[in-house]
Amino acid sequence: xxxxxxxxxxxxxxxxxxxxxxxxxRIPFGRAPGAGPAPKKPVAFLQxxxxxxxxxxxVIGPDNALAYLLADQGYDVWMGNVRGNTYSRAHKTxxxxxxxxxxKFWDFxxxxxxxxxxxxxxxxxxxxxxxxxxTYAGHSQGxxxxxxxxxxxxxxxxxxxxxxxxxxxxxxxxxxxxxxKVLAPxxxxxxxxxxxxxxxxxxxxxxxxxxxxxxxxMDGSPFQEVCANAVFLAMxxxxxxxxxxxxxxxxxxVPAGASTEQLVHYIQLHNSxxxxxxxxxxxGNLKKYYSFSPPNYPLKKISAPIGLYYxxxxxxxxxxxVEKLRSQLPNVIEYYNVPxxxxxxxxxxxxxxxxxxxxxxxxxxxxxxxxxxxxxEMYTNDQRNPINPC
Length: 390
Hints:
There is one protein chain. With 390 residues, the chain is of the alpha/beta class. The chain is built from 14 helices and 10 strands. It has helices at 66-72, 102-105, 110-129, 141-152, 178-183, 190-197, 207-217, 224-235, 247-253, 260-272, 281-289, 319-328, 347-350, 354-381, and strands at 10-15, 21-27, 43-47, 76-80, 134-139, 160-166, 201-202, 258-259, 306-310, 332-337. Helix 3 (110-129) crosses helix 4 (141-152) and helix 7 (207-217) packs antiparallel against helix 9. The longest helix has 28 residues, at 354-381. Mean pLDDT is 85; it is low at 204-217, 221-229, 232-236 and 374-390.
């Protein structure tokens, strides 16, 4: 997709401390006249949500997709892919498709993504670009894993100029998604649950699924509206923001694969009402945490500037839960309710009006914090000729 639209692209692989190999895609500059490689360009790092990949930052095209918009604004854009998805289905020693290796390979949730994957990718990006800070934007699980990283590994607060959370997911007590609500009562009966949603790997992406999505959802197909409603069932209904013509491209890339434990962990948050680590049961918790219950994530340790962008019709990131998150984050720089009543969870990446409703504001906030950080750094580094940081 990137090459098709005339942008440069690079692939990079970062290795986590526990051996996963994560592919990142980079758009080093945009298509504007005179654009090209330049030292010390501001870096923007984008992190996808559950069952997604870097493709979701691109699929709605260069006039609307955030990755292209940032590249055209002069940013060095990096898109992460977490363990187990289409582009990061690799490990130094484990084979995700080998029966003997599968249980070990897929034994992770978004907790591991937050404490291993994001730090590995961010470290790689900063080392490669020779920068000390970057801007972060994440959607859904890309926000959950961000909050895990910043609370459990607080030193990473210091490398973020600002972070922008689209459809932020931490507390989930008030979600409306029928899909989650149906599974919630049986989440503790793990065998029954995995028989419904898959053992080890949840909704893997394969050629048959991709082909089926393209044929069933293409323009003129009698099943196109079924495809649309399948998306709405989990995310919230917003017919006007979903471009049906783009459904084949979207479903060619989604679902991109994930561990069953990622979904189970989210369902646990809904059942408990807390934002906390994975619940292994009484005995498992005693063994791992020395407590009957998993520990809560210490959100008060998050000092990075955080922007929260949410929608009233989001069936996963409910307004009440987002407000609770806001009350526990020490440094919220933006609290923005998308001014469209029917805007839903996935519209933050696929919505036909997402540029004007969300991305223009996000990019303005990104620019504001890059400018303020630059001024402060200049003031700190040049006391002989100080620049007013205000």
